[in-house]
Recover the amino acids of this structure.
């Protein structure tokens, strides 16, 4: 009997740990995927995970239909008890135009699984600049940006999404425009938060040492004293000119940038969008090498528990070997040297030309493309015209238009070629084709001692 009892109890001893281990693994996976300091982020992570899993069960359509640009998927959860320490008991999640954004992700070379992992494997972290309204986050691997937008922005996005998709199809995904990858609404405690996901224009591993927000105007376009004391201030057009900033690229790179810029600006003009900017980030390779040799790491101004429960973004490069996510496959490759990047991940990046005064990596892209030229913008233009006067052709000096697309005569490195710009003579069309007059691209010839200055416009 004793031996019989032992025979019966032995399987129980073996089975119990198996059952416990299985349950423990399941709970850990849920916590790993959906844990975030705030309920909005927890629901966002849960919703992205849920929507991608659902999309994987749906065949990819042969072509997108008009209804796809108006479609949405919604889910409402009540009395949610499982994992209640990380998710609220009641929440709603809505994804806009899932098939359209799925198609856009494919055209931008982003797999749904990588997109899912980048957003849900670990909570998003605060971006470097959160002084504006709303949420601005980056994914844990710093390849994606999650930005809070308004309901009006959602409506504007619906208004341009069809044309935007056509533009991306025509240019085969080669663009300076933001790469929109998903748009969502999160409802928690009777409050709705709208979020849009884009590819990060800066690198996930190369530190940006200087950045500029350029609009092609000098009116009220200078960084404030408050902005300048930040660890990474956002400089503007006047600062670009005063700093004698230049961008050194070769002729092939210049032609590619100009082709994209002209094509994208024409697209924005067609949609009557005018409040966009050119975001320019500069990585100083020499400085990065010195910091690596000296063992210096960028300091975080805030220590301890961050406000709003959002973790500070870790130093760039600390997740360069992540086994998962959009940049995850890089872990299987040899480590990148200082100043090197993967063009399939850092799609907005380009190296400075050989023979340039300093080794740099530039990141350029168009931002703030959801503002159309409406009554509010008309009033702002009129106010600038009254305040700053009118040019000889009768246009307000606060706006700019491209002049010729010609090439200036050869100049020395220290000379500057400024482009005369005027506002459109057809003001009734309410179109302002923006030009970034302060961004000078220098074409490095085979002889390093000789350079030609090319106008952007």
């Amino acid at each position: 009997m004793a031996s019989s009892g032992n025979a019966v109890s032995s399987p129980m001893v073996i089975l119990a740990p198996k059952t416990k281990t299985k349950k423990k693994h399941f709970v850990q996976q849920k916590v790993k995927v959906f844990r975030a300091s705030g309920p909005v982020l927890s629901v966002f992570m849960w919703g992205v995970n849920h929507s991608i899993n659902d999309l994987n069960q749906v065949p990819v359509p042969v072509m997108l239909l008009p209804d796809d640009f108006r479609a949405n998927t919604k889910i409402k959860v009540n009395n949610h008890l499982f994992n209640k320490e990380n998710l609220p008991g009641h929440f709603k999640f809505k994804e806009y135009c899932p098939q359209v954004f799925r198609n856009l992700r494919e055209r931008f070379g982003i797999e749904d699984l990588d997109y899912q992992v980048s957003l849900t494997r670990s909570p998003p972290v605060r971006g470097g600049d959160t002084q504006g309204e709303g949420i601005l986050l980056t994914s844990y691997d710093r390849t994606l940006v999650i930005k809070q937008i308004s309901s009006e922005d959602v409506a504007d996005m619906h208004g341009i999404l069809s044309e935007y998709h056509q533009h991306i199809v025509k240019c085969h995904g080669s663009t300076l425009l933001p790469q929109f990858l998903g748009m969502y609404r999160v409802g928690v405690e009777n409050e709705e938060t709208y979020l849009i996901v884009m590819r990060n224009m800066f690198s996930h591993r190369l530190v940006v040492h200087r950045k500029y927000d350029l609009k092609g105007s000098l009116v009220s376009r200078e960084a404030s004293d408050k902005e300048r004391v930040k660890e990474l201030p956002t400089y503007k057009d006047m600062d670009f000119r005063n700093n004698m900033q230049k961008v050194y690229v070769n002729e092939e790179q210049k032609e590619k940038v100009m082709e994209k810029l002209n094509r994208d600006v024409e697209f924005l003009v067609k949609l009557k969008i005018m409040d966009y900017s050119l975001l320019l980030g500069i990585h100083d390779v020499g400085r990065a090498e010195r910091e690596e040799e000296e063992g210096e790491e960028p300091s975080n101004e805030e220590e301890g528990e961050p406000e709003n429960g959002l973790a500070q973004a870790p130093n760039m490069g600390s997740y360069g070997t992540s086994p998962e996510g959009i940049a995850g496959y890089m872990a299987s490759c040899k480590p990148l040297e200082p100043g090197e990047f993967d063009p399939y991940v850092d799609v907005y990046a380009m190296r400075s030309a050989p023979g340039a005064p300093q080794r740099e990596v530039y990141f350029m892209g168009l931002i703030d493309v959801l503002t159309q030229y409406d009554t509010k913008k008309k009033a702002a233009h009129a106010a600038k015209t009254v305040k700053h006067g009118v040019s000889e052709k009768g246009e307000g000096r606060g706006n700019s238009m491209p002049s010729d697309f010609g090439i200036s005569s050869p100049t020395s490195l220290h000379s500057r070629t400024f482009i005369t710009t005027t506002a459109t003579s057809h003001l009734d069309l309410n179109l302002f084709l923006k030009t970034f007059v302060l961004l000078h691209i220098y074409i490095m010839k085979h002889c390093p001692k000789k350079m030609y200055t090319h106008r952007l416009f």
In short: The chain has ten helices and 15 strands. The two ends are 96 Å apart (CA to CA).
